[in-house]
Amino acid sequence: AFEPRVFSGVQPTGNLHLGNYLGAVSRWVPLQDEMPSIFCVVDLHAITAGFPDPKELSAATREVTAAYIASGIDPAKSIIFNQSQVKEHAELAWIFNCVARMGWLNRMTQFKDKAGKNRENASVGLFAYPNLMAADILAYRATHVPVGDDQKQHLELTRDIAQKFNNDFAERIRELGIGVPNPTPSPELPDELYLPLTEPVIAGPATRVMSLRDGTKKMSKSDPSDLSRINLTDDADAISKKVKKAKTDPEPLPGEMDGLKDRPEADNLVGIYAALAGMAKEAVLAEYGGQPFSVFKPALAEIAVMRLAPIAGEMRRLMADPAEIDRVLKDGAERASAIAQPVLRDMRRIVGF
Ligand code: ADP
Ligand code: NA
């Protein structure tokens, strides 16, 4: 069987925010005790929507690294590195550019959102981004990918790529004797696979954190005008102010989940509270049902400060020593390469290079 392995990443494009933390990074921490884990700062992805200032890009890479460590990722146990330092990502992405079909990528909603009306002017990299993401995961033959809800479609594409590659090269994989028995036999797949069909790990009460000023928009790094966004670098005062200013409706909180329907702002704040407190949303409603936001918001602010302010403090401490962060990234890149290189050697043999 495929060895269980976790892979995930965040782009170094500006500040990490509460959505990245609750939807992704905080959920990685317990996983690193369950299976070998690789956490990447995906800087090759950070140039797809336009090249950032080169100095800002390397500073953002260090900041995301600091956020991982401050959130509880242990660099002695898990691998932390940046994507551009392991060449196998780009090499495998090229192979996958020739596996994925134009029609598959044309269906990606994130490209449509990010490219907007002016598709002709989007970079080819932005269009092909999901192939690079598939390469990030499959260069390690990772089996589990913990991400937010917005990445679901890209992970389905990763599985489609793995499935097509396994099928197209089934005979070759058998001939070379490097296949793994298919753990879930099905008529769509050969008996032996080289690439695993990766499982998305999208779970918990905050897989899609919405903006605090508009409950219908995702909290996102890419909207610089959204000052309501809670950043991982915010201090206690800033966190507290942003929670208290969050848009809400005038009704008290409902006692049951049904009562959150058509109340996106209330639903979002309850989900955030639940994730920060390690509770289910039902339990939050059992506690706060019938209470007005004037009671719930201070409680939410308190737990947000309690969970997030220490991370900001630890990030500041880590960022004061950039040489140490660079050392973590270098060590991580060596350990990542040691896994990806033999996979690429096999992939090259399969293809015939
Ligand atoms: P962003 O979408 O903020 O630019 P990335 O694309 O680098 O950030 O995403 C990094 C991780 O954070 C991914 O796993 C993504 O699914 C998750 N994520 C991003 N925004 C949110 C959100 N608002 N709620 C939950 N998870 C999110
Ligand atoms: Na995203």
From TrEMBL:
<dbReference type="InterPro" id="IPR024109">
    <property type="entry name" value="Trp-tRNA-ligase_bac-type"/>
</dbReference>
<dbReference type="InterPro" id="IPR014729">
    <property type="entry name" value="Rossmann-like_a/b/a_fold"/>
</dbReference>
<keyword id="KW-0547">Nucleotide-binding</keyword>
<dbReference type="GO" id="GO:0005524">
    <property type="term" value="F:ATP binding"/>
</dbReference>
<keyword id="KW-0067">ATP-binding</keyword>
<dbReference type="Pfam" id="PF00579">
    <property type="entry name" value="tRNA-synt_1b"/>
</dbReference>
<dbReference type="InterPro" id="IPR002305">
    <property type="entry name" value="aa-tRNA-synth_Ic"/>
</dbReference>
<comment type="subunit">
    <text>Homodimer.</text>
</comment>
<dbReference type="InterPro" id="IPR050203">
    <property type="entry name" value="Trp-tRNA_synthetase"/>
</dbReference>
<feature type="binding site">
    <location>
        <begin position="19"/>
        <end position="20"/>
    </location>
    <ligand>
        <name>ATP</name>
    </ligand>
</feature>
<dbReference type="GO" id="GO:0004830">
    <property type="term" value="F:tryptophan-tRNA ligase activity"/>
</dbReference>
<keyword id="KW-0963">Cytoplasm</keyword>
<feature type="short sequence motif" description="'KMSKS' region">
    <location>
        <begin position="218"/>
        <end position="222"/>
    </location>
</feature>
<keyword id="KW-0648">Protein biosynthesis</keyword>
<feature type="region of interest" description="Disordered">
    <location>
        <begin position="241"/>
        <end position="261"/>
    </location>
</feature>
<keyword id="KW-0436">Ligase</keyword>
<feature type="binding site">
    <location>
        <position position="209"/>
    </location>
    <ligand>
        <name>ATP</name>
    </ligand>
</feature>
<comment type="function">
    <text>Catalyzes the attachment of tryptophan to tRNA(Trp).</text>
</comment>
<dbReference type="GO" id="GO:0005829">
    <property type="term" value="C:cytosol"/>
</dbReference>
<protein>
    <recommendedName>
        <fullName>Tryptophan--tRNA ligase</fullName>
        <ecNumber>6.1.1.2</ecNumber>
    </recommendedName>
</protein>
<feature type="short sequence motif" description="'HIGH' region">
    <location>
        <begin position="12"/>
        <end position="20"/>
    </location>
</feature>
<dbReference type="InterPro" id="IPR001412">
    <property type="entry name" value="aa-tRNA-synth_I_CS"/>
</dbReference>
<dbReference type="InterPro" id="IPR002306">
    <property type="entry name" value="Trp-tRNA-ligase"/>
</dbReference>
<feature type="binding site">
    <location>
        <begin position="11"/>
        <end position="13"/>
    </location>
    <ligand>
        <name>ATP</name>
    </ligand>
</feature>
<feature type="binding site">
    <location>
        <begin position="218"/>
        <end position="222"/>
    </location>
    <ligand>
        <name>ATP</name>
    </ligand>
</feature>
<dbReference type="GO" id="GO:0006436">
    <property type="term" value="P:tryptophanyl-tRNA aminoacylation"/>
</dbReference>
<feature type="binding site">
    <location>
        <begin position="148"/>
        <end position="150"/>
    </location>
    <ligand>
        <name>ATP</name>
    </ligand>
</feature>
<feature type="binding site">
    <location>
        <position position="136"/>
    </location>
    <ligand>
        <name>L-tryptophan</name>
    </ligand>
</feature>
<comment type="similarity">
    <text>Belongs to the class-I aminoacyl-tRNA synthetase family.</text>
</comment>
<keyword id="KW-0030">Aminoacyl-tRNA synthetase</keyword>
